[in-house]
Amino acid sequence: MNVAVRPHLVDGTRSVRLPSSRQGSRSGIVAEGAPFLAVEGVSLGFGGTVALDSVDLSVGEGEIHAVIGPNGAGKSSLINAISGLYAPDSGTIRIGDDRFSRVPTRRLARLGVARTFQNLALFKGLTVLDTVTAGLVDRQSAGLAAQILGLPHARREAREHQERAEAVIALLDLAAYRDRLAGTLPYGVQKRVELARALVARPRLLLLDEPMAGMTATEKQRMSGDIRAARDSTGATIVLIEHDVGVVMSLSDRVTVLDHGRRIASGTPAEIQADPAVIAAYLGLAFDETVA
Amino acid sequence: MATTSAPLAKAPPRPSARGIGVALLLVIAYGIVPLIGTSYLYEAILTPFLALSLAALGLNLLTGYAGQLSLGSSAFMAVGAYAAFNLSLRLPFLPLPVTIVLAGLVAAFAGLVAGLPALRLRGFYLAVSTLAVQFFVAWLLNRVGWLSNDSPSGIISAPPLVVAGLSFEDARGRYLFSLTVVALLTVLAWRLVTSPTGRNFVAVRDNETAARVIGVKVARTKLLAFALSSFVVGVAGVLWAFAYLRTVEPAGFNLDRSFQILFIVIIGGLGTLRGAFLGAGLIVVLPLLLSRFGAAVLGDGFDSGTLEMCQRIALGILIVAFLIREPAGLSALLDRAARRLRRRS
User: Which pick of A70, A194, B91, B181 has the fewest CB atoms within 10 Å?
Assistant: First the structure.
């Protein structure tokens, strides 16, 4: 399996390598105790349509938590609510020690939250290196004048940020595209660039909205490896939306199933696969499709 | 391959080639042109070319890099020119460079205020709000006599260009003065667009939501783009009035001028610094070529009215052609030509 060995993400260096098998994620890295992300009773409607209906979601620190469900189940709405792009009508969202009725998007990076988007949200006029470096914008402290005049501390900061970006670029095997404009790259590569932009800041909570949509089986496999490697090395809590049930079951520690804006089940992959409500709403159909 | 977006810093295969090119241009501009130029060349071509290039450079920071459309460029030129005039009139002890920097800061402040709607409006709606700025500034300059020192016609002559006892009053001096100002600001603009702040500009332009999510302060970035852009455009206004026209009058800064600067940016290439120079070169040279060509073909029938009409038609065709065939402008054409040459060699 070509994703079996991934470089380790310790302080952005490649010095440590850890094997990370497909079963690795089940081996109990999940921390006990208070969840890092807690969505409590969040409802969200768009002029009569209910996108989320009193949804609860609890994700432990360092957990890879998949959110699945049929189209229109409210998965993306949930991610958008957690990242503050949508304002819930009711309910609260707790990230770490902070509790919000609406998550302030402008403070996301400060809160240690990074995300990717279902339909790529890259800066098409920036090179891959600049795009990934831009993921560190929140750590930028040098002022405008210092940047323009090239004062020592601004140059040092720029160099450090570039080094961190280069490390993530190497980690996700993007070195070949380093100086290409993000908008000119193949779809699967753009997806990895977006992941790199999110990872470079070493977020504590990573929200991935269909990171493998439209990918080939091989690409999905390596993306799974990348996501797991990211969690194993940074300890990030990861919430991801994914349609491929096979990928979800092997990658996730826990799974939450949404249907028509409601949570119909939450548990380990094994529990979910055995849940009659889930099979009725979603899995039966999806499994048939996967098998066929 | 035609990309509709402009690169922030498209790393060329041989960056040194670009450095050599710029150095060569500066040697020609400072070393050779002043030896062989005529006052016609300075006054009718080079000085207006430099002032328009600078204005386009300023607008490009805002529109090309930060993606905020503005139709008020000539209002900011006017603010810069009038600020410089009033500063030199009322604070005559200030050295000219200080006056110009202060005038740029006044224009930057005007740009900051004009940029406030950008926090709520986008694209076409923003353009209309900057149009309002254009009309407001024209109205203000006509209405408040104090700004033009109560001159009955509203037209005032520009103060002499003297820096540290050195006079830049003749045609060549005004050219060299403009060249120096433009060269300095171009270097600063280049530093800006390759800095993290310039990267934020492009991030806001290309995807505002993603920019906000990764922590770009979107509102601050937009206002900064308006202020910095207006600073440069304001200084261009000072050059336009002090070095080129030698007079300061509201009519020199009308809506036509705003459009002209926008067209320079579009034709030259959005989001590239050299695009401003390429576009301005074309805009300045085009009328001269047309009038030569027209006079040769039509003889006496080609009067100034016909010329102006032909200019507008030619410009219109050019803009439509560029928007359809090469949205990245002359700059991208040049890139492609260079690549083809390199491949052949």
Answer: B91
